[in-house]
Amino acid sequence: MKKIKKAILPVAGFGTRFLPATKAQPKEMLPIVDKPVIQYLVEEAVASGIEEIIFVTGRGKRAIEDHFDTSYELERTLVEKDKHDLLDAVRKISGLARFSYVRQPEPLGDGHAILCARHLVHPDESVAVLFGDDIIDGKTPAIKQLIDVYEKYTDPVIALCTVPEEEVHRFGVVDPVKIDERLFEIRKFVEKPKTEDAPSNLIAVGKYIITPEVFDKLEESINDKGEIRLANAFVRMIECDRPIYGYQVEGTRYDCGDKLGFVQATIQMGLKHPEIKDRLKQYLKSLK
Ligand code: UTP
């Protein structure tokens, strides 16, 4: 079994839930305190052993490429001004991993975006996939938790989190069969069910390990509008009696693609940030 060393990060979506902020800038570049959301995700992947990051980008996403590139002029200015801490923070970014970029010519779905990167993946290689929204703050990086499951079972793994029952109607919910602590085999996916129809309160969050078989199923999952969704490829896997595992990841999840989740992440990360944590705590206490 090949070790998982590559991650695909599809970032070609429009980010409509954050308009107008995302009219002229990628939603992935919105900062949580002083770091863009996408950097949290890349750092999560790198801390999980990933060495190559493949971004699937689209129109208006150039800022992501610039962020992970070296910035010669900025670095020179920081050297001249003796700002060594900032210089280290800036330099570190481009050295995090090897970065590649592919374009998705049209936003034809998250699965279509993943397929745009297929030629950069070896035919028998499994890869991590991280969507742009979910930051999971925990002791072990979420992708590492999924890789550990993959290394045991060598089948696709999906990150799961629980949500309160009254919120299931906003998410893709799974029908799980428990096989171990936090580990499930997935029997069914139910998209945005009514509370009374939901098979569980476990939702799929945007982190996955996908195998070559999932790439094949993606190719078969094209709908009549030319769109391809990753969730449909998983449905086809289940129809073919192929196992898909779900792992309830440890850590606190922030849905940064949602306005409230984004503000919550900002507050929590702010409360950990050495420069502002004490003043932020005081400020929050002062609120009635
Ligand atoms: P989302 O469903 O969150 O869509 O995509 P979005 O465009 O990012 O955000 P909203 O819902 O409009 O506010 C899940 C992931 O798949 C990527 C997105 O960039 C995100 O990381 N994606 C989606 C693509 O790369 N291409 C697509 O055609 C669709």
Evaluate the radius of gyration: 19 Å
CATH architecture: Alpha-Beta Complex
H/E series: EEEHEHHHEHEEHEEEEHHEEHH
Question: In one word, what is the shape?
Answer: globular
What is the tally of helical segments? 10
Helix-and-strand structural type: alpha/beta
Unreliable segments of 5+ consecutive residues: none
Roughly what is the average pLDDT, rounded to an integer?
95
State the helical fraction: 25-40%
Distinct ligand kinds: uridine 5'-triphosphate
Secondary structure tally: strands: 13
CATH superfamily: Spore Coat Polysaccharide Biosynthesis Protein SpsA, Chain A
Number of domains: 1
Report the CATH C-level class.
Answer: Alpha Beta
Sheet bearing the most strands, described? 9 strands, mixed
- Order of strands side by side in the largest beta sheet? 5-4-1-6-11-8-12-10-9
* Proportion of strand residues: 15-25%
CATH topology: Spore Coat Polysaccharide Biosynthesis Protein SpsA, Chain A
CA-CA gap between termini: 56 Å
